């Protein structure tokens, strides 16, 4: 396997950095595309926040009334 002819002048560590940069760019591209495709809302976080709010109301300590 000859590899990419344009990268033949680079050393092995430099080639690894180029590949790592390309893979990182690909991953971020897929992430942002996916977030845009689903509307960019974090529905799970909103549901967690709503649950925590309800849980906080239910678990507030009951103060006994003094007679």
Describe the fold and architecture.
The chain is mainly α and 67 residues long. It has one domain. The protein contains two helices and no strands. The chain has helices at 12-37, 43-58. The longest helix has 26 residues, at 12-37. The N and C termini lie far apart (88 Å). The mean pLDDT is 80.
Q: In a few lines, what is going on in this structure?
A:
This protein has 67 residues and is mostly helical. It has one domain. The chain is built from two helices and no strands.
List the helices and strands and how they pair.
Blueprint: H1 12-37, H2 43-58
Number of helices: 2
The percentage of residues in β strands lies in under 5%
Q: What's the rounded overall pLDDT mean?
A: 80
Largest sheet: none
Number of domains: 1
For the termini, the CA-CA separation is: 88 Å
Low-pLDDT sequence parts:
none
Indicate the overall shape: elongated
Number of strands: 0
The proportion of residues forming helix, as a percent range, comes to 55-70%
What string gives the helices and strands in order?
HH
- How large, in whole angstroms, is the Cα Rg? 26 Å
Output the structural class: mainly alpha
Transmembrane segments: 17-34
Organism: Arabis nemorensis
InterPro entries: Coa3_CC (IPR018628)
Protein name: Cytochrome c oxidase assembly factor 3 mitochondrial coiled-coil domain-containing protein
């Amino acid at each position: 396997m000859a590899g990419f002819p344009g990268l033949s002048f680079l050393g092995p560590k430099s080639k690894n950095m180029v590949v790592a940069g390309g893979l990182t760019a690909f991953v971020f591209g897929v992430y942002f595309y996916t977030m845009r495709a689903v509307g960019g809302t974090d529905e799970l976080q909103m549901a967690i926040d709503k649950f925590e709010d309800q849980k906080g109301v239910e678990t507030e300590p009951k103060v006994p009334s003094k007679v």
